[in-house]
Fold this sequence. Notes:
- The complex is a heterodimer of chains A (443) and B (456).
- Chain A is of the alpha/beta class and 443 residues long.
- Chain A folds into 2 domains: 13-75 and 393-443, Urease, subunit C, domain 1 (Roll); 76-391, TIM Barrel (Alpha-Beta Barrel), CATH 3.20.20.140.
- Chain A has helices at residues 2-16, 119-124, 165-168, 197-203, 210-240, 249-258, 271-284, 299-305, 328-338, 356-365, 370-375, 379-384, 431-440; strands at 22-29, 37-45, 48-53, 63-66, 71-74, 76-81, 128-133, 151-159, 169-179, 264-267, 288-291, 310-312, 343-345, 402-405, 416-421, 424-425.
- Chain B has 456 residues and is of the alpha/beta class.
- In chain B, the strands form 2 sheets. In chain B, strands 1, 2, 3, 4, 5, 14, 15 and 16 form an 8-stranded mixed β-sheet that branches. Chain B has an 8-stranded mixed β-sheet with strand order 6-7-8-9-10-11-12-13.
- Chains A and B meet through helix 4, helix 10 and helix 13 of A and helix 2, helix 10 and helix 14 of B.
Amino acid sequence: MKTVGLLIAFAIAASAAANDTFLIRNVDVYPVTGAEMKGVSVLVQDGKIVDIGAKITPPKGMKVVEGKGLRVYPGMIDSGTELGLSEVSAERVTVDTGELGEFMPQLRALVAVNPESEHFPVVRANGITSVMTYPASGGRGGRGGGGGQIIAGQAALIHMAGWTWEDMEINRSAAVQINFPAIAGRGGRGGNADFPDELVALFGGGPATYTEAKRQYDAQVAKLNEFFDAARQYQKERTANAPGFRRDLKMEAMMPVLEGKVPAAVSASRERSIHDAIQFAEKQHIKIVILQPREIGKAGAELKAKNIPVILGRTEALPENEDAPYDEAFTIPAEAYKAGVKFAFGTFSNEFVRNLPYNAARAVAFGLPYDEALKAVTINAAQIWGAGDKMGSIEKGKWADLMVTTGDPLEIPTQIKYLYIKGKEVDITNKQTRLYEKYLNRP
Amino acid sequence: MIKTFVAALVMLAPLGAEVTVIKNATIMTESSKGTIKGSILVRDGKIAEVGESVMVPQGATVIDASGQYVIPGIIDCHSHIAVDGGVNEGSVSVSSMANIKDVINPDDIGIYRALAGGVTTANILHGSANSIGGQTIVLKMRWGKDAQGMIFEGAMPGIKFALGENPKRAGNPTPARGAAPNTQIARYPATRMGVEDTIREAFNEAKAYKASWDDYQAKVAKGEHLIPPRKDLKLEALKEVLEGKRFVHAHCYRSDEILMLIRVADDYGFKIKTFQHVLEGYKVAKEIAAHGAGGSTFSDWWAYKAEAYDAIPYNAAIMAKKGVVVSLNSDDAELMRRLNTEAAKAMKYGGISETEALAMVTLNPAKQLAIDNRVGSIEAGKDADLVIYDKNPLSNFAKVQKVMIDGQKYFDRDNEVSGRPAKQLEKQRLIDKEKQDQQRQTDAQKKAGQGARRPQ
Lengths: 443, 456
């Protein structure tokens, strides 16, 4: 009897003081999807935003956070990382991106996410609450065993806190990652780009001649198409439960892509690669998202017409060619915006994820409207990865993934005061702040 | 004849006396004047006057910088741009005979890009493959000048040292996948112990070398006739270090190796001018300050290698608070273009003031390179190395509008942007011409090949 009484008392107390229920008051709210509201309150219950307004009286016993002089924004989203899969990038034993094998759609980044990675708290401290984490190295091909990957596996959309990767999961298969083939090591995987395409076409670059490079490229694209054709054949046999049908894990992983439930995230950097990737998507009737284009150009109109979103890489990057304008990487977002392309930002790194908002800000200096930069690190990312109804803005019914700041999050000196993921306050101290305190106080 | 020459000089003099006034600007002087609203008078490549208002001499070029910001030219204490070919002479552990001065490439586009990011001066270093690397040189980003014209006149040359993982690497060669083991020969050292020994051995030799020269010179001074000691180019650079005629810029990461080098330097009686990267400098800031060395670090790079795992973005702030002269460097042609916002990171991480933060990419690196009598702040008498931004340069929303070195305009965003269509046309013309030439060649070959095909 006594125990039951205690339990009831505990349950009431827990509800009133639940750690995902609270009110922030007197705060300036920047919802991203609407106009800012100054000096209002945000009510969070059971991890969700339930109300935003001037006059909200908190229920008795509810935790109240004073927001005077502070701002609240939705937590930011980096659409290109290898967080959780890579700890010290130069040390292969600490890196789990870049598996062997050309066609590996069955690989899942999520299961290799180390929740205790020191990168999570470091990145969180700058207001980032969720990221896309990819199976290929550097979010592309490159280092490790996976240099030759064409289909690298499934990228996961994760929250930046949790006891296990299951806790962190938002979508374990937010995209299947494809490194679209490139001519002469250009395009999809970057590569040496000292010469314009026209000259490479004349003199050759990479493989002995342009003709040879083109032949290799065509062979790779053909291989990719063959793999998709095989997957479609498998799909038919699977649906018909044809005699002798055998479950194949690679092919199973392709089904959601063929059904249009999961997009393919396709790396393609040059105008022509983007065009080819779009042609490929049309031919295979699949949904795609373009990763890390390094030029937009004529592809802009095509991307807009086909409604294909783009994940822009770091603006903090050098121009592709020696004779390209010095500000090429700074102006790509404005160019994508003017073309009407929907885009979000990705840092395609681990070490630089915390600088996500600064990459967006640099695009503003070079012509991107401010509001678009903010959207590209919040709501656009959520929408592109199929979580637009749950996160990416401050709206009723959405998760309380929030950052409370001292100012504009796109400006470097701004501090993050509090961070919430699904309404739970997340620690913004980390290895680095601890070392700071320790050595600042060294006698 | 001489008269004519003098007359010519007199005629030319007024033409050479170029005068520019930048007015109505917010000037972040990085001097005792602080940040002021006012004007800068530039004459003959030097800053002649800075103040709320200056007299505009007749014939002066006037730049109206209303709403804009002027800062001293940015100085990068660690860069590898403008180097022709590789930056590492990795075949030996001590490569002090190699000199960056011999391989300056004034056509490197990195120079122009750095300029477009507000950099006017950079310390160009050898790579970090050797415990003792090559000789370094300070350059001004005078895009368009030849190699000689790039050199910062009178700046003390330096030498690169490197500790930790990079100089160890050649001692631990990794065979390529599938290659037979031990096909690559290991180069000493392979450990941090070996790095210390390599440096000690080199200075042991250098000390003896210096002694033989000192002895020789002393005797010659007394009138003795002697055969001089044999010149050794490797030890010559280290002798200069011992004599305080060449600065040591030491690449390092971990606190143990930083302390090690300080003690080695103490033992051999030389000074470390700057610790470069120095990512764990915050752990031994007291010792670095006591030695009198500067710290030239990254703002927030970490975890890209094992020795960068304890790197913290508060490094600059802690070192500064403990009395070290701190600069923020790039080591990278891309990062080099935005050192102004790297400075803002010192404000974010550790609460450094705006003025102090900006000093980390202007006055402080000037001090570290001992060129602060010439550059690093906006003061009368200093070189007119100036950058004009459209907004506060510590903001991500700011961009460089104009860059001046020695009073000459080397970058102008308006000209850069308006000049692009013409450049694009020129490029297209060159490509078309190349295509035509190729076609002509193919046609000629076809024509010649009609009938009997010549054996190849």
